[in-house]
Amino acid sequence: MPGTAQATDGYFLNGVGAKAKGAGGVAIAMPQDAFSIASNPASATAIEHRLDVGFEVFIPDRGSEIIGNQAGLDGVYSGNDANPFILPEFAYVRPLSDTVSVGLAVNGNGGMNTAYKTNPFASFGATGPAGVNLRQISIAPTIAVEFAEGQSLGLSPHFVVQSFEATGIQPFAANSQDPANFSNRGEDWAFGAGFRVGYLGSFGDNVRVGAFYQSEVWTTEFDRYAGLFAEQGGFNMPASWGAGVSVDATPRLTLGADFKHIEYSGVNSVGNPISSLLQGVPFGADNGPGFGWDDIDVWKVGAVYQASDKLTLRAGYGRSDNPVPQSETLLNILAPGVVRDHYTVGATHKLSEKFEITGYAMRAPRQTVNGSGSIPAPFGGGEANIRLAETAIGFSLGFGF
Predict the structure, then answer these.
(1) N or C, which terminus of the chain has less Cβ within 10 Å?
(2) CATH H-level, domain 18-400: superfamily
């Protein structure tokens, strides 16, 4: 597994594969390589026999500020003690007949990392550095069938391997039903499964429409953090769904757009508010406190331009809601997944008939969420302000057969 799996649509990736990422993450109805099956499994029927292998160099800039706290927490804190991160991925698609294709995609699905060398909770009695490291890897075997000309359905059993570690948040264990399994318990692992279904349809010679549904991924518990996460260490992956369209505006220019909805609030350990503590519900309980994340909507637009027989250019933009309410910023010092705007560019150079290289760059400008009623009175009151910006570059090699 990579050192961490970071993300931009909350804690999910803003796209999978170098070609999609160069075009703003657009992929639901604009398949460009084998990685497209990770966004829409029906895309397998639109992809020739090929293998894609890539990696991303990801550099997040995360931090926080605490003001007006009567317990001594005030200060400006950098969460960047760990940087950068290398995230590998690969995907393979093989047509079995004119109407049936299979594939496999393995990629970083989401995650979050913060590493505070200066612990924001030291005045509470916390020792050592503070932070979390959540990594999620998606493994998705895929089958797709073209059931009518230009109309396909796809299915992916969706397997997830995830790990988690938390350090430096010991004082909050006093509010847990299992304080021995709350912080500084080392890396723990969980495994889960769900499913993804997709549709891809072509209308005329130049219009494609796609849609997908990703079920909640039900996982085993993080036993070492049974006192931190709701449901005794539960950390399922939230459900999501979306739709997209792409249009060949000219023989050389393709335009695409995606919409996606992510149901973070449906997972208690992610969506439950910290105010549960004030109602007597401890960390780790069935309906215990979480990070207070809201559901989000994500919009993406992208363009692909065939500049020559060997060179393809891409650009895109993505806009997502912020999942973190102003009242929930205290715990999200550890998970400030708040960036909203994503700007991308990319290009593919065809080295031969069966071999190509693709690169892209992404920039998500700094987004700050200022707390409002964010630190409960028992913790000294005041406000926690959190921030995040992201930069990424990536490359992939594509092999045709």
Answers:
(1) C
(2) Outer membrane protein transport protein (OMPP1/FadL/TodX) (2.40.160.60)
